[in-house]
Input
Amino acid sequence: MSNNVTNKIAKFTRENRDTKLTFFQGFLRRPQTVGSVIPSSKFLVRRILKLADIRENDTVVELGPGTGGTTHALLNKLGPTGRLLGIEVEWKFVELLQQIDDARLIPHHGSAEDISNILKDHGLGKPDVVISGIPFSTMPAEAGQKIVRAIFSVLPPGKSFVAYQLRDRVAELAAPVFGKPEVSLELINIPPMRVYKWSVKDKPDLVRETA
Ligand SMILES: C[S@@+](CC[C@H](N)C(=O)[O-])C[C@H]1O[C@@H](n2cnc3c(N)ncnc32)[C@H](O)[C@@H]1O
Output
């Protein structure tokens, strides 16, 4: 093996290890917010992408990109005119996302519940897909309801919300506005995760008024 290839493998291994360490440190700082000890596996990421069904010029919002593993995979799916807004509450993770050299990515330090204003601040229209890894099961029910309603308020009919979660709390929170999801289980991940998908059909008056 040439020195060049060996150096590239060593660099990749080092970066991968550093990313996992940064993620774990984030978990130690805010376990309930980060929700997992390591980033999502490539198997889970593949499953998320399959359900999200991203098209080349989509506007995608990622809630809780973490250290960016899912973010890189989403960027690989998007074409040159696609946009990816990553809303992340943990500043250390935002710093990592800002190092991704890709003009299609907008890393934003903030919280998912402000999705509507954040989209406006960046001059983005309505998204095609919202993908969320934020742990709904460890947050107060009111906070979870607020986020689910905020997501629903920005998604036009025909567009989708995909969430990967350890527990099914998100399905309970989302049911009043989104209805029943399509559910899929990924076992090759620590911990195993359910992936939920809702496609917006119509918008009940109740939500339209509060959005
Ligand atoms: C389970 S991790 C997922 C990280 C990454 N997407 C992955 O799959 O490896 C959940 C992420 O959601 C972020 N998060 C939690 N609550 C949030 C909120 N209200 N708004 C935005 N991000 C949030 C956490 O900081 C963490 O990065």
